[in-house]
Amino acid sequence: MHTPVTIIGAGLGGLTLARVLHVHKIPVTVYEAESSPSARTQGGMLDIHDYNGQLALKAAGLMDEFHAIVLEGRQSMRVLDRDGTVLLDKADDGVGGRPEVQRSELRKILLDSLPAGTVRWGHKVSSTRALGEGRYEVTFADGGTVVTSLLVGADGAWSRVRPLLSTATPEYTGTSFVETYLFDTDTRHPAAAKAVGGGSMIAPAPGKEIFAHRESGDTLHTYVALSKPQDWFAAIDFTDAAAAAARIAQEFDGWAPELTALITDGDTAPVLRPHYALPTGHRWDRVPGVTLLGDAAHLAAPNGEGANLAMLDGAELGKALAAHPDDIEAALTEYEQAMFPRSTEVATFEGAEIHGTDPDANTAHALIDMITETDQ
């Protein structure tokens, strides 16, 4: 390819694209706002699906590395009632199509697969602008600039590349997570550890949910989902960890203590994670020399598919560019024509099914029905 590819964002989608391009010997540079690979905690567990995320890793030639970081047993799942009654206890039989890995480990194998210097750290984008004839200028916070004829926005929810293509902006979905961690749980928090089991645990109710995941070792990562307006969360002082945890736990008054302990006994301060989404079916008209992938293109409420879709976007875009080395527009058209319906279908099917995003439908029995149908 005559024009090197410029990617904004070194998340899983941007790195998958960079790796697939590298496999096909296409020059690429990734610009990332973070100062280093370890500048920020990379989140918790990801289930990488055999119908999208794993296909991306195959295209990247990294399946052996992926299998090496899979955490055994983490596909097991429990659904509990609010009183702690176990309604579903689904064991990990080792043949499920959604093996679990730590996000940080997955990002590391992608980074390690790229030549040194591919990712330029500490390059926070402040703006982008079109120069005409399919050329774009990217301006960084330090005043530096780069000009490119092939720009890919892999820069997440608040993408600085998206305005070149679309006026859409993310809007609050009405639901937020509050996250905490419990460490050394088998010895320090045995009741909570038993409730969660060896994989994930979900205790849903209308408008609220406690979800927890066993990560590496005996660390539990708790996600409390609440369907509340942003003003409600703004009234909570999250700088006072104990008071904030107590206030969140009030919403689960009367629930089993081993469940509320996942909130009140946290070893880290609770962190608020509001959920935003772009309009379902978000798309744009073809603009020469620029496109988006992952959350920059189709941010949705948490549905278990975001990281997988971003990686598949990156792989499919990389393959399209490799297939049309002398016709960038043909490659971008091919990629977008497949990406738009793929992301819309997932958002429509999955959007209100999990993590408290539909307060009317998300009861324990509805969740069990969904899990059973998925297994079949």
UniProtKB/TrEMBL annotation:
One of its GO terms (biological process) is response to antibiotic. It catalyses: a tetracycline + NADPH + O2 + H(+) = an 11a-hydroxytetracycline + NADP(+) + H2O. It is found in: Cytoplasm. Its cofactor is FAD. FAD binds at residues 47, 103, 295. Residues 3-346 form the FAD-binding domain. GO terms for cellular component: cytoplasm. NADPH binds at residue 40. Pfam families: FAD_binding_3. Its EC number is 1.14.13.-. Keywords: Cytoplasm, FAD, Flavoprotein, Monooxygenase, NADP, Nucleotide-binding, Oxidoreductase. Its main location: cytoplasm. One of its GO terms (molecular function) is FAD binding. InterPro entries: FAD-bd, FAD/NAD-bd_sf, TetX_monooxygenase. Belongs to the aromatic-ring hydroxylase family. TetX subfamily. Consists of an N-terminal FAD-binding domain with a Rossman fold and a C-terminal substrate-binding domain. An FAD-requiring monooxygenase active on some tetracycline antibiotic derivatives, which leads to their inactivation. Hydroxylates carbon 11a of tetracycline and some analogs. HAMAP family: TetX_monooxygenase (MF_00845). Monomer. This is Flavin-dependent monooxygenase. The lineage of its organism: Bacteria, Bacillati, Actinomycetota, Actinomycetes, Kitasatosporales.
